[in-house]
Amino acid sequence: MELPFAEPYKIKVVEPLYRSSREEREKWIREAKYNLFNLKSEQVFIDLLTDSGTGAMSQYQWSEIMLGDESYAGSSSFFKLRDVIYELLDMPYFLPTHQGRAAENVLFSALIKENDVVPGNSHFDTTKGHIEYRRARAIDCTIDEACNTAEYHPFKGNIDLQKLEDVFKKYPAEKIPLCIITVTCNTSGGQPVSMENIREVSALCRKYGVMPVFDAARFAENAYFIKTREKGFENKSIREIVKEMFSYVDGATMSSKKDAIVNIGGFIVLRDKSLFEKASMFNIMYEGYLTYGGLAGRDLGALAQGLREGTEYDYLESRVEQVAYLGRKLQEYNVPIQVPTGGHAVFVDAKKFLPHVPKEEYQAQTLAVELYLEGGVRGVEIGTLLADRNPVTRENRYPRLELLRLAIPRRVYTDNHIEYIAAALANIWERREKITKGFRITHEAPIMRHFTVELERVER
Ligand code: F0G
User: Whose C-alpha lies nearest to ligand 1, atom 13?
Assistant: First the structure.
C-alpha cells in the first residue's frame, strides 16, 4: 500500500500540559472576564490563540542561539540573516525589527500621512491600527468570494482588481502611499493570494504610480498554496516561487514569528534606497541600531536558520496538511468552516454555528468561550470585537464574517491533539440549539480593544 504521510522530524523536548476540569475552567474564564487573552497559559490545554511566536524551533535554530553574536554594531548574526534574506527574497535593502507590527510602525512612519488611503486585502488588525493611528484609512479590496465561507475558491486572499482600480481612480496617487498584499491573508482565513493576482495587482499599482508591498508574515505558506493549487507552478520549488512573488513588490513588512518559526523577530525589505534611508532613521529611533533592530544577536541567527527551514517543501507540507486535517475532521462532524482551510488556521463560521446568539452579543467570542469550557482549547475571535469601532462615529463595526480562529502552532501539536480539538467542537455543535445568549462589554480600550476587553454574560 501507499505509505501514509508522516512528519519529517521527531520530538526531542517535551513540555507537559495540565488537563483541567470543567469546574476549574468555569472559574478561570469568569476571573478572566471572558477574555481568553486574560487566561494564564497553564489554564489552557491546547493553545490555538495564535501561530505567532509559538512554534517549536529546530536543533539548528537552538544552535544559532548559542552562536549569537551580541555586538551592538556589525554582529555576524546580522550578516548571516542579511545573506539569507538576499538569497531567498532577492531584495537589496533590509532592516531588522523586533516583530511585524514594529516593521509596520517603522515603514508607515516613513510613508503614511493623515488622510491617506491604503488599499489591500483584509489588512491585519495591527496593520489597520497603524494606518488608522496616522489618521489614514485602510480600504479592503478582497474578492467577494472570501466572504462566502461555504464556497470553494483556491485563492480567497486575492484582491479584486476592479475594487482596487476604483480606489486608484477615486484618490490621487499622492494620497495612496502603498498597496498592501497580505500573503497569506490572515483575516479572511489564512487564505492565499495567487501568483497571477500578485502579478496583476503589481501591474495595476505601477500603472497608477502606487507602491505594492507585501505583508509577508506567511509568505512561505502562500508559496506552498501556489505550488499545490496554481497551474504552472507544480514543478517549481518553494524558493523559486518565493523569489517570483517578491519580484512583483517594492517592499515587505515581515512578522518572523510566523513563517520564520522563531519566537520573536521581524524585518522590513525594500527596493528603494531613499525610502530605506528614511525608514532607517525611524528604525534607529523605535527599534535600535540598524544591525539589530530590537533583537538580540541570537534571535537574528535563529531567524536566519528559520527562514531556511520555513521555505522547505517537506516542512510546509507537514504544516499545511495538519491544518487541512483539522478542517477535514470538522467537516466530518458538519461543523461550518471557511473552505478551503487556510495555511495557519481553521476558521469556524460562528454566524452559522450560533445563529441564535444575536450579533450584538458577539457570536464568535461566545463560541470561543464555549470551546474553552468544553475542552480547555483556546481559540481567538476574529469578529466584531476585533473589528472594533468606527474611529469617527464610534459605532461598533459588524464585519461580514464572524469567525473563531483555531491557529495551529508550527511543529508543536500531534494529530491526537487535532482529533481532540475536533471532538470538542463536535460536542458543542451537538448542543448548539441551547446556546442563545452571548456577552456584553463592561470595559474596553479606545483602540485594539479585543486584547483587553472585559465581558459579562447577558442574562435574559
Ligand atoms: N501581519 C499579519 C498578517 C499578521 O498576522 C500579524 C500578526 C502581523 C502582521 C503583526 O505581526 O505580531 O509580529 O507584530 N499576527 C498574529 C496573529 C498576532 O495571531 O495572527 P506581530
Answer: 100
CB distance 97 to ligand 1 below 6 Å = no
How much is the pLDDT for 189?
Answer: 84
pLDDT at 292: 97
Q: Would you identify the CATH topology of the domain 59-310?
A: Aspartate Aminotransferase; domain 2 (3.40.640)
**Closest to 344 in 3D by CA, of 403, 264, 407:** 407
Grid cell locating 424: 470538542
Q: Take atom 11 of ligand 1 and give the residue whose Cα is closest.
A: 100
Distances (CA, A) of 377 to 36, 46, 258, 317, 380: 10, 5, 20, 24, 10
C-alpha cell at 11: 520530538
CA-nearest residue, atom 18 of ligand 1: 52
Q: Is 125 a catalytic residue?
A: yes
Between CA 69 and CA 239 the distance in angstroms is 27
Looking at the DSSP bridge assignments, the partners of residue 159 are 142
Ligand 1 binding pocket includes 120 (Cβ within 6 Å): no
Per DSSP bridges, beta strands 117-120 and 137-140 are parallel
Q: Is 258 a catalytic residue?
A: yes
Residues of the chain below pLDDT 50: none
Report pLDDT for 5.
87
How much distance in Å is there from the Cα of 167 to the middle of ligand 1? Answer: 25
Name the nearest CA neighbour of 181 among 140, 230, 135: 140
Catalytic residue among 216, 217, 220, 422: 217
Write out pLDDT tens, residues 324-362.
Answer: 999 999 999 999 999 999 999 999 999 999 999 999 999
Q: Could you tell me if 190 and 344 are in contact, meaning their C-beta atoms sit under 8 angstroms apart?
A: yes
Catalytic option among 51, 125, 250, 388: 125
CB atoms within 10 A of CB 22: 11
Rounded distance from Cα 302 to ligand 1 centre (Å): 19
CA distances from 399 to 198, 329, 351, 422 (A): 25, 27, 11, 26
User: Which listed residue (34, 108, 124, 214) is catalytic?
Assistant: 124
Domain segments of the chain as ranges: 22-51+313-457, 59-310
Q: What is the pLDDT of residues 221-252, one digit of tens each?
A: 999 999 999 999 999 999 999 999 999 999 99
CATH of domain 22-51+313-457: 3.90.1150.10
Name residues whose C-beta falls within 8 Å of residue 405's C-beta, 6 or more positions apart in sequence: 48, 345, 346, 347, 348, 379, 380, 381, 382
The structure's pTM equals 0.95
